[in-house]
């Protein structure tokens, strides 16, 4: 999780009040963070934030959040966006390379070393987290006074453009940057297979950025910079917009004035657009969801502490209209608003004294019974294994010879071995024997686990044994031992599944229905699973055994 390093007095300056450090240490974790030790320096603080709140990944964002959370200035923080005459042209060629591009300006900032460090840390934390190491978006922050608008976002061939990249002193073309510059080497895979690369120019063909790799050294931000141009390019428009909004509002917290630019070309828009998002929630549903009884007033006050504006819908007293910032990328559903109500209300205020009618948990009947079954089979000399519930139709039916059933299929399977949920345990255990065919014999394994039949999970037992010689009589004794120890009444009947050698397979019938099979596995099934020695097996559906009166262990 991202760690934010900052100074206590700097945070207080951003909050607008001198908040006791003890109060901050107690309250910051309540908005979803973990305080780190100050390491002996009381002015140096460190906070580790949960990844769902990228708007708090800087001391500026934290100051804004705590200003509302502490009740100093609750409600939505809105920012003025002044119109500028800066234009940015997006070349349609970019749509097949890195299609989304938004930008903005922030003027009148006074940058010191702490502020500069905070800007760079925010940029990198956004890249690593929601930017997925620049694969979703990449941010460029530039000294606006070093370049001349309008700016153009286009593509260039690998050897057609040369510029001095950040932290270097000599010119390189785009291909050289990917091969020699440390950032180029680290992120070259993001441009693999492209004939032309994305590039941002000013009106004089000066290079601002080679996204998502590196900025030009010309626009390096220093403590002498006062006006900034921010660009965000990427593959996901929502993420691109969110990243831009987080950066420009963080800079505005330092006194900068946000300016909009007119973007033309492949699309026409004014950027950034910080118009708050509106969502309507049900007050009663929210309180029921959280187990609270705080009324509309309580819900509105809690949301105010989370930096949101809220009011009761004049046409429906149960509906609350919520306005929140575009930087809140974590809000995707009403329950995300409910979570903010819980946070604003205070997690420390939930619950109360323990009631006297507390109950004790206990194992479910299935678990108790399966534990007993395991003890029986272990007593018969078998070793327990646990396999994946994922399997594939070929192993389940074609190789095993067991009857084909309707399976629950995986929509986008990663491998051919895992395309459905298993309907039998036997194929999974056969795969275990296949992987251990070079081990000493005999091998006896079993599993008590769930399979899926008719879209329901069903508890099964399967035991397999391989040795230089196996017999129907031996596996019959295993099956009857389990049934005898569970006091289950049963009958046997012949089974003609191709799973077994002809005449050496049997059904176990409970209550007049087939509840299991056992026998000597046919040589074809054995060799199809690439096993080199004879195998015998038994598999039971434990449901009818559990449901019978006699299905209990003495």
The CATH architecture of the largest domain can be given as 3-Layer(bba) Sandwich
In which range does the helix fraction lie?
Answer: 25-40%
* CATH hierarchy, class of the largest domain: Alpha Beta
**Sheet of most strands:** 10 strands, mixed
Structural class: alpha+beta
CATH third-level topology of the largest domain: Phenylalanyl-tRNA Synthetase, Chain B, domain 3
Unreliable sequence segments: 549-554
The general outline is: elongated
Tell me the number of strands: 27
Total helices: the number is 16
Our count of domains comes out at 4
Beta content = 25-35%
What is Rg?
Answer: 33 Å
CATH superfamily of the largest domain: Phenylalanyl-trna Synthetase, Chain B, domain 3
Description:
It is a single chain. The chain is an alpha+beta fold and 554 residues long. It has four domains: 3-69, 2-Layer Sandwich (Phenylalanyl-tRNA Synthetase, Chain B, domain 1), CATH 3.30.56.10; 81-271, Phenylalanyl-trna Synthetase, Chain B, domain 3 (Phenylalanyl-tRNA Synthetase, Chain B, domain 3, 3-Layer(bba) Sandwich), CATH 3.50.40; 277-348, Phenylalanyl-tRNA Synthetase, Chain B, domain 1 (2-Layer Sandwich), CATH 3.30.56.10; 365-547, BirA Bifunctional Protein, domain 2 (2-Layer Sandwich), CATH 3.30.930.10. 29% of the residues lie in helices and 29% in strands. It has 16 helices and 27 strands. Strands 4, 5, 6, 7, 10, 11, 12, 13, 14 and 15 form a ten-stranded mixed sheet that branches. Strand 17 (309-313) and strand 18 (316-324) form a beta hairpin. The chain is elongated, with a radius of gyration of 33 Å. It starts with a strand and ends in a 7-residue tail after the last helix. Residues 549-554 have low confidence and may be disordered.
């Amino acid at each position: 999780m991202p760690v934010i390093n900052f100074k206590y007095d700097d945070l207080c300056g951003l909050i607008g009040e001198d908040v006791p450090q003890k109060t901050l240490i107690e309250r910051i974790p309540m908005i979803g963070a973990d305080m780190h030790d100050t390491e002996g320096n009381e002015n140096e603080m460190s906070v580790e934030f949960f990844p769902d709140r990228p708007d708090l990944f800087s001391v500026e964002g934290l100051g804004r959040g705590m200003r509302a959370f502490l009740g100093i200035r609750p409600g939505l923080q809105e920012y003025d966006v002044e119109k500028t005459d800066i234009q940015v042209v997006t070349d349609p060629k970019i749509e097949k390379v890195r299609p989304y591009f938004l930008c903005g300006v922030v003027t009148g900032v006074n940058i010191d070393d702490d502020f500069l460090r905070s800007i760079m840390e925010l940029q990198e934390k956004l890249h690593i987290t929601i930017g997925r190491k620049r694969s979703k978006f990449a941010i460029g922050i530039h000294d606006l006074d070093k370049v001349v608008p309008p700016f153009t976002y286009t593509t260039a061939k690998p050897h057609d453009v040369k510029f001095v990249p950040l932290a270097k002193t000599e010119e390189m073309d785009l291909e050289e940057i990917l091969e020699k510059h440390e950032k180029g080497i680290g992120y070259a895979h993001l441009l693999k297979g492209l004939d032309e690369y994305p590039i941002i120019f000013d009106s004089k063909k000066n290079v601002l950025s080679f996204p998502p790799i590196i900025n030009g050294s010309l626009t390096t931000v220093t403590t002498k910079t006062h006006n900034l141009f921010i660009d965000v390019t990427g593959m996901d428009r929502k993420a691109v917009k969110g990243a831009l909004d987080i950066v420009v509002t963080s800079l505005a917290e330092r006194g900068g004035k946000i300016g909009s630019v007119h973007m033309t070309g492949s699309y026409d828009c004014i950027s950034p657009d910080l118009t708050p998002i509106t969502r309507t929630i049900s007050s009663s549903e929210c309180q029921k969801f959280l187990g609270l009884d705080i009324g509309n007033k309580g819900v509105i006050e809690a949301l105010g502490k989370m930096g949101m504006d809220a009011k009761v819908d004049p046409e429906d007293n149960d509906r609350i209209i919520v306005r929140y910032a575009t930087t809140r990328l974590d809000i995707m559903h009403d329950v995300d608003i409910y979570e903010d109500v819980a946070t604003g209300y205070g997690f420390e205020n939930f619950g109360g004294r323990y009631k006297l009618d507390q109950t004790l948990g206990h194992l479910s009947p299935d678990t108790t019974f399966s534990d007993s079954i395991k003890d029986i089979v272990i007593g018969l000399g078998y070793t327990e294994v646990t396999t994946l519930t994922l399997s594939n139709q070929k192993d389940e039916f074609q190789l095993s010879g067991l009857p084909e059933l309707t399976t629950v299929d995986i929509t986008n399977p990663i491998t051919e071995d895992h395309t459905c949920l298993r309907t039998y345990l036997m194929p999974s255990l056969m795969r275990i024997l296949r992987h251990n065919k070079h081990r000493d014999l005999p091998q006896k394994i079993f599993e008590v686990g769930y399979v899926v039949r008719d879209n329901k999970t069903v508890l099964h037992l399967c035991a397999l044994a391989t040795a230089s010689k196996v017999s129907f009589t031996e596996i019959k004794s295993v099956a009857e031992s389990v049934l005898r120890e569970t006091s289950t009444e049963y009958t046997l009947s012949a089974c003609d599944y191709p799973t077994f050698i002809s005449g050496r397979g049997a059904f176990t019938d409970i209550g007049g229905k087939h509840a299991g099979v056992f026998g000597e596995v046919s040589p074809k099934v054995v060799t199809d699973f690439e096993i080199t020695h004879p195998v015998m097996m038994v598999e039971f559906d434990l449901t009818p055994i559990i449901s019978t009166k006699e299905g209990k262990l003495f």
